[in-house]
TrEMBL record:
This is p-hydroxybenzoate 3-monooxygenase. One of its GO terms (molecular function) is FAD binding. Its EC number is 1.14.13.2. PANTHER family: P-HYDROXYBENZOATE HYDROXYLASE, TRK SYSTEM POTASSIUM UPTAKE PROTEIN. Pfam families: FAD_binding_3. It comes from Actibacterium naphthalenivorans. One of its GO terms (biological process) is benzoate catabolic process. The keyword Zinc does not apply. Residues 2-342 form the FAD-binding domain. InterPro entries: FAD-bd, FAD/NAD-bd_sf, HB_mOase, RIFMO-like.
Length: 391
């Protein structure tokens, strides 16, 4: 088989890139290790930056998001001294869309099907070949049969544990990492949200986040030690701890119920440079991971896809390779700004095991300053709604 762009990974990055390229008349093949059902069973991000919203609309995969998504003007932050609102719309004239990653991925799968795009599931043993040459190709097996796809370019959209990043020789790669000494225990419950917008809570017992998916589906998180296991946490224990960390008036009005999903996610900041080697381009989690505190993971995948799509479109439609040549530099500039913001939100909102009283006062004064400063709130809002893709 031959195609123009072979895409490894059928998550949000791979599917969005495939959708945009196919709509521009550029041929792709997506190789996904798992079944579609497995990919759609993952519960992950919930907040879309406005740039991501517009990109999904451009890709022709935004109709259900526009019908069912919830537009938020801002979010709340709560500390031991009370809760305050940061109004993104008032501060920077932009909003965010609450619409789960699962739904984004489902919409992209449906849009790919409608276009007749090639998405191959249960593709195993994917391997990338001659990536630094002029004739790269990909091999994989399926049902015991080996296949080969010759292509012009390969997009590594296969996430943190994928095969693409390791294809770049260690002598070429530089990796930067910070692992946080805690995780997020998250649940999904068929209950109404406890507030009209998200609440990020800094509490002496630890961080908590009250989020949502729709008027009858909520997503809550509490910071837990890395040693905790999901089975250590009954639903009752989760609800009690969540209420202890949220403002009293919110906790009193909270509707609880049985969890329909419960999982613990580790938190890390990770960036691998460069995001291009020869004919291979890394996109999304294959190149970088951010702690979910800033709601940046899925959105960074979208901006990577924007840069790579524009570069490939210019190459195929006008023979202009400048976008491809600058891809890594341009994508990493935005990745590092989002990595900084996610680090700032994480270090400001969580309790660190070795936190001193001094650290505690610094955290509290950071949030008190934010509560009282329109300029500080504008800076937070600018980053939370998403920095422009193109300066
Ligand atoms: P993905 O990991 O989503 O997709 C990669 C795809 O490649 C997967 O479908 C995988 O099966 C496939 N694949 C892997 N190896 C392969 C191989 N060798 N061959 C073929 N296919 C292969 N972000 C937020 O913004 N907010 C959140 O709250 C949030 N919570 C998260 C919770 C968890 C547990 C995790 C893991 C991530 C979370 N994220 C969150 C980040 C997440 O949303 C990612 O940023 C997003 O999934 C990135 O999309 P992709 O780059 O497509 O990677
Ligand atoms: C979510 O709804 O899953 C969510 C929202 C905001 C975050 C992280 C996760 O910062």
């Amino acid at each position: 088989m031959r195609t123009q762009v072979a895409i490894i990974g059928g998550g949000p990055s791979g599917l969005l890139l495939s959708q945009l390229l196919n709509k521009a008349g550029i041929g792709t093949v997506v190789l996904e290790r798992r079944t579609r059902e497995y990919v759609l069973s993952r519960i992950r991000a919930g907040v879309l930056e406005w740039g991501t919203v517009e990109l999904l609309r451009t890709a022709g995969a935004g109709d259900r998001m526009d019908r069912e998504g919830i537009v938020h003007d801002g979010c709340y932050l709560s500390t031991a001294k009370g809760m305050f609102h940061v109004d993104f719309k008032k501060r920077v004239g932009k909003q965010v869309m609450i619409y789960g990653q699962t739904e984004v991925t489902r919409d992209l799968y449906d849009a790919q099907e409608a276009l007749g795009a090639t998405v191959i599931h249960e593709a195993e043993d994917v391997a990338l070949h001659d990536v630094d040459g002029d004739a790269p190709y990909v091999t994989y097996t399926r049902d015991g049969q080996e296949y080969r796809i010759d292509c012009d370019y390969i997009a590594g959209c296969d996430g943190f544990h994928g095969v693409s990043r390791p294809t770049i020789p260690e002598s070429i790669r530089t990796e930067y990492e910070r692992v946080y000494p805690f995780g997020w225990l998250g649940i999904l419950a068929e209950t109404p949200p406890c507030a009209d917008e998200l609440i990020y809570a800094n509490h002496p017992r630890g961080f908590a986040l009250a989020s949502m998916r729709n008027p009858n589906l909520t997503r809550y998180y509490i910071q837990v030690p890395l040693t905790d296991k999901v089975e250590d946490w009954s639903d009752d224990a989760f609800w009690a701890e969540l209420k202890a960390r949220l403002p009293k008036e919110v906790a009193e009005g909270m509707v609880t119920g049985p969890s329909i999903e419960k999982s613990i996610a580790p938190l890390r900041s990770f960036v691998s440079e460069p995001m291009r080697w020869g004919r291979l381009f890394l996109c999304g989690d294959s190149a970088h991971i951010v702690p979910p505190t800033g709601a940046k993971g899925l959105n960074l995948a979208a901006s990577d896809v924007h840069y790579l799509f524009e570069g490939l479109k210019a190459f195929y439609q006008a023979g202009d390779a400048s976008g491809l040549d600058r891809y890594s530099e341009v994508a990493l500039a935005r990745v590092w700004k989002a990595t900084r913001f996610s680090w700032w939100m994480t270090t400001s909102m969580h309790r660190f095991p070795d936190q001193s009283e001094f650290d505690q006062h610094i955290q509290e004064s950071e949030l008190e300053y934010l509560a009282g400063s329109a300029v500080a709130q504008a800076a937070m809002a600018e980053n939370y709604v998403g920095l422009p893709f193109d300066e």
